[in-house]
Amino acid sequence: MDTAPRIPHPASRIPYRASRRREAGFTFLVMLVAVIVIGVGLAATGEVWSHSRQREKELELLFIGNQFRQAIELYYQRTRDQRTCPVKCYPEKLEDLLQDKRDPGVQRYLRKLYADPMTGKAQWGLVKAPGGGIMGVHSLSNAEPIKRAGFRSRDQSLTGATTYYEWRFIYEPSQGKPPVVVSPIPQAGSGLQSPLQPLAPPQPFGPAPQQLTPAPRTPLARPR
What we know:
The chain is built from one helix and three strands, in the order αβββ. By secondary structure, it is mainly alpha-helical. The radius of gyration is 43 Å and the shape is elongated.
């Protein structure tokens, strides 16, 4: 009896090899699709995170810009030395906001020189006042802002800006201070009542009460 192992014919292995190849091709296709889906998801997540981070930087820029504006206003309003500054003046440099050398004491209007959150540098664009000094600051970033509207009243000038470079935080003495209206003193014979004259007593509301006249008394007859 012949016990030698039988060697399969090479043609019988062709279907098996083709099946393995199809399985490998299908697995590769599934992995490729999975990689594409994961890549798209990561890209979308990265874009959302980038927009969220940019919005946070915008809020930080608004806060820091208004800190500079408020410090410049305090420096301007605290002008005292009539010899060096006969009229109210702006600071010559941003470092003057950290310590006012015009005051013999220690007077600070800003805690520190903040960095520009859009560039990460402590370098700012300076807005020069017509009479000299610094009246405001602005970012040096040319990036396009996300926020275009919905600003507070103090930041309405930023509406419609196309770059952060146009976000300027300026202090002008006439901003936010309505003029005080003083009423003129009326002249004699003008018919107007002077505010120093006493006011007339208020009149009662409704019809005036009628006074009742008592009826005449009839004498009683004496008993007889």
